[in-house]
Amino acid sequence: MLARVEPSAERIRSGDAIRTWRFLAAADEPGVLVLLTGTTGSFPRRVGSQMAVAADGTTAGSLSSGCVEQAIVAEARAALDATAPRRVRFGQGSPFIDIRLPCGGGIDLLFLPDPDRALLRQATERLEARRPVALSVSNDGRLSLEDAGAEPGRLVVHHAPPLRLVVVGQGEEGLATARLARAQGLDYRLLSSDEWLLDAAAGEGLPAEPLDAPTALPELAADPWTAVVFLYHDHEWEAALIARALATPAFWVGAMGSRTTQATRLALLRDQGTDEAAIARLRGPIGLIPAAREPSTLALSVLGEIVGADAARR
């Protein structure tokens, strides 16, 4: 009999889950979905983290940064051969005395052979359409897409859509931020009225959209998992754009500039009729590094703040 899964509701990075689910759904042969269901001591992964193991031992994702991956693959292949779910503990409290975690803790893993590939494709499509997914695992290893809560014998792993970044700006700051977003693998969008920036972005293969006039603004398509950052020196453009962003459900809206610049910006927003509740959402000055001026440093500083804010709410 499969060991009991403790009731739990966890939140996990969606990008990692999408890669794992795609790997299993696209395989010609059955594979194994491995879930982290419990930890003791210090361990870098959250409960609910997942990896996939194919019949030939190839993998997608990681649960231990390499320290017990070979043992995980061996157990996954054994579960596949037995065509039955199994739960295994590694590290502290494990019967495998020759396998130890560097952190000194222990992990509980649930191995699900031949998971429902149609369901995994459906889960992937939902996340790619920027709809939250709740992957529910019953005590007997059955998967479903429902939020049943922390019922006895059920693990529910919540996956929110990945962070999306909208960069609106001019000059080197906008270009550096788009570069860094691409390097980070983020879903990003670059908007600018700056011909130099548009040409430079095109030259580097960075998609960018032109802004023609402050009165002809595009749809920002910002959802609750979107951050919008303004890197503008032109307040006429900026005020109209910021008001549009503050009217969206974006979880983070911020603008470059000093405290004096921020005060001027807030006054402009009030003058054009933006309500105080919306104005209170605008962050500024922005970035983890105070008074960062060099474009690449500013980009790193701002993106660090955004990624940190996103991680804190998941």
From TrEMBL:
Signal peptide: none annotated. InterPro entries: MoCofactor_Util/Proc, XdhC_CoxI, XdhC_Rossmann_dom. This is XdhC family protein. Residues 165-306 form the XdhC Rossmann domain. Residues 25-91 form the XdhC- CoxI domain. PANTHER family: ALDEHYDE OXIDOREDUCTASE MOLYBDENUM COFACTOR ASSEMBLY PROTEIN (PTHR30388), MOLYBDENUM COFACTOR INSERTION CHAPERONE PAOD (PTHR30388:SF4).
